[in-house]
Design a protein that fits this description.
Helix content: 40-55%
Order of helices and strands: HHHHHHH
GO molecular function: electron transfer activity; heme binding; metal ion binding
Organism: Candidatus Phaeomarinibacter ectocarpi
Number of strands: 0
Protein name: Cytochrome c, class I
Bound molecules: heme C
CATH topology of the largest domain: Cytochrome Bc1 Complex, Chain D, domain 2
Keywords: Electron transport, Heme, Iron, Metal-binding, Signal, Transport
CATH superfamily of the largest domain: Cytochrome c-like domain
CATH class of the largest domain: Mainly Alpha
InterPro entries: Cyt_c-like_dom, Cyt_c-like_dom_sf, Cyt_c_1A/1B
Amino acid sequence: MLKSTKTLAAIAAFAFSAAIATTAQIAPAMAEEAAAADTQIVGDPKKGKRVFNRCKACHTVEEGGPNRVGPNLYGIVGAEFGHLEGYKFSANLMELKAEGKIWDEETLSAYLKKPKDVIPKGIMAFVGLPKEKDRAHVIAYLATFGGPEAEADAADPAP
Ligand code: HEC
């Protein structure tokens, strides 16, 4: 009887340590995944099309589309500030353009979250998209309409 109790205890101890070992291996992997999900949400252009409804009162995005209250946004992702001639941008935006500011995804996301954080005296009267997901989706949608990368591909087609 004593012997089998010992054996049981040994089995239990083994199972316990195995469980700890497994948890210890899984925990960092889960933490890593969570961190990745936090920093880089993958934008979905289809969802972004819906988010863009909130921009449409002021912006078109198709190639050669008209300016409205805001400029046409064709090719905006990766482009320089004030990416288009024939639209009267704010003085503040033009100053930043002169400094060489670019609409990379990070800058776009900050601007769409809170326009005044990027262009304090800018004229885009938009409340902002508080959800990171919405910003990622709409940027992914904008990226389907031209931009420096698309132009580079067109100029240098893959063999
Ligand atoms: C109420 C009208 C309005 C709404 C709504 C609006 N914008 Fe704008 N947007 C503007 C105006 C006006 C400017 C010009 C800003 C300036 O010159 O300071 C602008 C500028 C921009 C620029 C900079 C363009 C460039 O060439 O530098 C981007 C990018 C942009 N808007 C994206 C968006 C997106 C994406 C949305 C929707 C999530 C949106 N805007 C919603 C009016 C608006």
